[in-house]
Every structure is written in structure tokens, then in C-alpha cells.
Amino acid sequence: MQIKKFKICFWVFLLCSLESIGQVGIGTTNPQATLDIRSSSTIAPTEDDGVLIPKMSQFPSNPGLSRDGMLIFYTGISASGKGFYYWDATTSLWNPLAGEGDIDWYAAGTNNTPTSISDNLYTEGNVFISGGNLSVESVANVSNGFSLSKTINSNTGNTLRNANIQTVLNGSTAINNVSSSITGSGSGNKRAFSGSINSTGTGSEYGLYNTFSSANAAVRYGVYNYFLSFNEGIKYGVYNNFFRSQNGLAVGNYTIINAGSGQVYGNQVRINNGTGTQYGTDIFINNSTGTRYGVRSLINGASGTVYGIYSEVENTATGFSGYFKGPVSFGNNATNRYVFPASDGTADQVIATNGSGQLFFTDINALPVNFTQFAVAQIHLSIDQPINTNNYSKLTFNSVQFDSNNNFNAAAHQFEVSASGIYRVTVSLETEFDQYLIGSSANLAIFVNGEPVRQTTLKVISLHETVLQGLLQLTDDDLVDIRMQSDATVVIRSNVLKTSLEIERIR
Can you give the residue ranges of every domain in the chain? Predict the structure, then answer.
């Protein structure tokens, strides 16, 4: 009770002194103002030196005009910051005190301290938020809830970022560095992320640019879209729309793969289920002018197996590795190619060419026969040839009657195959033995590449005619000759009517 009486007496004394002398000094006998309060020491003040302004955890609701300039110390429990506030009766607001050297935020577009909770703010320094979230609650139906603006005039090689988000992940928890969510029932177009580039500069422009520097074996996705919606609306994983007023190259998807020894796919499409019509790649070109390619492959490099298009269908009963509706052309260039017929042929028809690259269906009997494609040769002996050896000896056919493709080598007495196919080989001989010996034998054979493939035994009589014939499957560069062996002396007569070698390709 004594303390309370003392306080009342002190304030009564103070007020009376103000009215009587006009100036009051606390800690000084020479006040220099209406109220002059001095510390006990300017160099080593104590904890008692200072003035305590009334502390409040809530602002007085409306002090009124008569208390304009009233000062309080707010403890900072509600949304406003802790500090000294004064009452501005003109605006009916509690305003914080801020010195010229401690202005961190300005009202947007000015150098003035903000005076209202609805003022737009800006700062020229960095803003750091530790241990909390930055939530932006924008005004309804107004664009730019969170807006970043920067002007870059630097010519250095450093990368300048308008927004920079860095996260250190040491655990196994999944993380979204930037996450966007749109909910509601609105029918307008929705963009989780929207970017606009309207630059007159010549540098490259990227709507989305991702760099992967990790050295681990994790799967990486430049763009990953996951559709959880089960409605029947159209869905696009990536949608590119070029609205061009100028000419120049336009590429919907561009992929560069520079190195690596593993399998590489420029584009890989996997469709795991579903019952409707499914397209791995669907291309629609709605243009009536200029050259148009549905799929164009250009593969550089001379080594390794190369496939412009590789198609493999496991269902061979009803599947097609390639299905074409319209004219089909195969070849090396525009002038060296074959164009397939536009319509089907009839039963037993074959495809032929007109010599200018156009293929057509025709009856096989209507095709002209070009005998130069099939070897036909007939050769005789120029003189009689005696044979008396147990080993096979080559017959010296050397007199060419005709040889359509110049396959017979008269010097080597052999037929040299230049095209694979089925050949008919016929050997006709007139032979005469000098003497008849019981138990003697003579054999005639057709040799291919030094090995007998057809053989017959001759009768050892004074004068005899023998024919040996065979159908042979021969390949390019095969060598065909005729050989004979005999225990008794025999002479091959050079009678052109009875001794000859005939070789013809029949297929």
C-alpha cells in the first residue's frame, strides 16, 4: 500500500512540476526539454537505465483523435511484428516506428515505409525463410498470385536465374522441388505451369530445360506425365502447337544422343493394355502443299547393322510387319526405285517391271523370254582322244558350237558357271576299244569343282555309243568338266554327230 501511495504521489508531483516550472529533468538538474531523461552513464549504463513504454499483446481498438501520436510497445503475438507503434488518428491505424537506417521494405513504386496491411511491398535484398513455408494467398480472380520480374543486362557467361530452388536429399523420401496443384470444377483451360518467351534476341529458347548430372544408375525422366483421370477425354503427354508466321525448321520432338554403349531409343512407346485401336505412333498431316513425310529416317555411318525401319510382329497369322494403303516405292533415290502396283493382280499373275521402275501384274505367259539370261552351250572334240588310265582323265572338249553367255573355257576344257540355278548337263560319246579284254572296265563321269557328281559305266566292246545326263544345282563360280577312266585302251571319236557336251540352265 505504501508503494502504491508513493507512485501516485510521484506522478502528482511530476505533473505539478510540469505546470509550475515547464521543464522536468530525470537524472539531470539541467533539463533541456519539457521532459529530459538521462542515463546514469553514457559509457557504462546499468540495466535500470531507460524508459519502459506500456507493453501490450493486443492493439487498443480505437484510441480516437485526442490520442493521436500515442506510443505503445507491441509484444508481437498476433500477425503484426513486435516493436514500437504509434496511433495515427488520421488513418485510424497503428503504424510501426522505423528509422531511415532500418527500412527493409518499401511500398511498391515508392521509397516510403508501408502504412497499410494491403500495401504492395518490395525489398532490394535477399529474403531468407528458415524452418517455415512461404504461403501466397492471392486475391480471388486476379492474376499473378506469385510474380517474379528481373531485367538482365549482363554479358557474362554465368547463368542468371529468376527463381532458384535447391534441395539436399539424403534420405529415401520422395520429393517435389516444385509442386503445382489445380482443383475445382471450373471449365476453363488449366495450366499447372505456364511459360512465355517473347524475346527479340538470337539466343536459343527452351520452354523446359532439364540437366541431369547424377552418376548413379537411377532411371531418369526429362518429362514424366502420369494420368490418374479415368474420364474419356483426350489426353496428351506432350502437346506442341506451332503457330508460325515465318518459314524455317520446326521440330515437334528433337532428341540428341551423343555417347554410350547401351541400347538407345530416340522414341520408345509402350502400350500395356486396353481393347481399343492402339497406335504406337499416329501422324496426321493436314496440309496440301509441299513435300510431306509421315516418317523419315536418315542414318549416317557405314559400320554396324542399320535399319531405317525395323518391324517385328509376333502374331504372324493376322498381323502385318508393314501395312501400306497407297502407292509404295522402294529404291536408293528418286530415279533408281521400284513403284509397286496400286491394285491387286489376279490368280497366277506375277509382278514384272517396265524397265523404268514401275511394277505391274501380268500373266507369266505374256512375259518376253530373254534367252541371254540362261546359259546354253554345245561343245565338241576337235580331234580323237585316246584314254588308257585307271585314274579319271579330263576329256578335251575344245570346239565350241555355240555358247550364249561365254561360259565355256576351251583352253581349260570346263564350263564356268556365272549365275546360280538348275542346269542340265548331257554328255554323248562314241567310243572304240582297241581290244576286248574280259574283266576290263570303263567309267564316264560329270565333275563339279573336282568331284564326281554323276557317273555311268561303259560297255567294253569294239564300237559303242554312250549318253550320260544329269540335273545339277549349281552356284556362281562352279566349274564343270567331263572325265573318263578305262582299264583298256579306248578312243573317243570326234564325230560331231555323236560326241558332244551340252550344258543349259533351265531355271
Answer: 2-39+49-117, 329-365, 371-505
Q: Is the pTM of this model over 0.70?
A: no
Residue 422 host element (H or E)? strand 421-433
Query: In this predicted structure, what is the pLDDT of residue 7?
Result: 46
Burial 441-459 (b: 16+ CB within 10 A, else e): ebbbbbbbeeeeebebebe
Contact 73, 66 (CB under 8 A): no
Distance CA 260, CA 265 (A): 12
- Cα–Cα distances (Å) from 280 to 222, 238, 268, 270, 489, in that order, read 20, 15, 9, 7, 79
Distance CA 331, CA 357 (A): 9
Mean pLDDT (the chain) is 80
C-alpha cell at position 161: 536465374
d(CA 379, CA 389): 24
Cell of 385: 582322244
- 426-472 pLDDT tens trace: 999 998 877 666 667 889 999 999 999 999 988 777 778 899 999 99
Binned at pLDDT 50, 70 and 90, residue 179 comes out as confident
Cβ pair 105, 121 in contact under 8 A = yes
Residues pairing with 47 in the sheet: none
Strands 35-37 and 55-56: unpaired
Taking the CA atoms of residue 159, residue 165, residue 166 and residue 170 in that order, the dihedral angle to the nearest 10 degrees is -150
Beta bridge partners of 338: 330
| pLDDT of amino acid 481 | 97
Q: Give the H or E element holding residue 56.
A: strand 55-56
The alpha carbon of residue 205 and the mean position of all alpha carbons in its chain are separated, in whole angstroms, by 19
**In this structure, which topology does domain 371-505 adopt according to CATH?**
Jelly Rolls (2.60.120)
Strand partners, 329: 339
